Amino acid sequence: MDDVEESLRLQRTEIAGQIHDQIIPPLFAARMQLEALAGKLRASGESDHSLPGPVVLSSVDRAAEFVVQSMMAARELLSDVSPPTTGERYWQQQIELVSDLLSTRLDKNGQPIKLDVSGDFPWDTMPTETSIVVTNIVTEAIRNAIRHSHADRISVAIDSPQSRQIHVTDNGRGFDPASIKSNHGMMLMTARAKSIGGQLKIDSKFGGPTRLTIAWPK
């Protein structure tokens, strides 16, 4: 199996994993929340004791949160499966998605996690397909930092068009890079990089910071 076929296989596995892990669970949780509320309402009706308004609102709000989580995951998945026709639009869309995700996560001080993006993407010097692959790697690195690093700041630095490199850095707790070589997400990013002749490099240590670099050829 060549690198492109392996990349496609991993992407299909990733899609199935996203549906299983990110879309179905919050929908199931919303269902359970609403079913529990319905049971309480039926019980209160049979006993002639009305359920307090705040209890009802709290249950409905919580169910709505679960639905929103599922919608965000579904929108993210659809963007991966059917990307826009231009690399620039795809990049903008994916950065908006991870920014939406960041807005729902708070650091230890109760503040939203910060995302800084600097530099100009070399749109005019690379094929759309290449820019989409690079975008997928960058946004996956951001999502990994959100999920696992406990960072309160993530930065994306785009080097000059001549260098063709992008760095994703977070100030989280860090890890031993050797411990994630067989990680599914890492394997997927590596396969994606190979599909465009690119390379990934990860620099990290316990206590952080962590820096992922994606480089691709001219």
Report on this model:
- This protein has 218 residues and is of the alpha+beta class.
- Helices cover 57% and strands 13% of the residues.
- The protein is built from five helices and five strands, in the order αααβαββαββ.
- Strands 1-2-3-5-4 form a five-stranded mixed β-sheet, covered by helices on one side.
- Helix 1 runs antiparallel to helix 2, helix 1 (3-46) packs across helix 5 (184-195) and helix 2 packs antiparallel against helix 3 (87-103).
- The longest helix is centred in the N-terminal third of the chain and has 44 residues, at 3-46.
Query: What does the oligomeric state look like here?
Result: single chain
Write the element-wise H/E pattern from the N-terminal end onward.
HHHEHEEHEE
Strand content: 5-15%
- CATH top level label of the largest domain: Alpha Beta
CATH architecture of the largest domain: 2-Layer Sandwich
| CATH topology title of the largest domain | Heat Shock Protein 90
| Rg calculated over all Cα atoms | 21 Å
Q: How far apart lie the N and C ends?
A: 25 Å
Question: What structural class should be given to the helix and strand makeup?
Answer: alpha+beta
Global morphology? elongated
Helicity, in percent?
55-70%
* Mean pLDDT across residues: 83
Q: Order the strands across the largest sheet as they lie in space.
A: 1-2-3-5-4
Tally of separate domains: 2
Number of strands: 5
The description of the largest β-sheet is:
5 strands, mixed
Helices, by number, come to 5
Low-confidence stretches: none
Any idea what the CATH superfamily of the largest domain is called? Histidine kinase-like ATPase, C-terminal domain
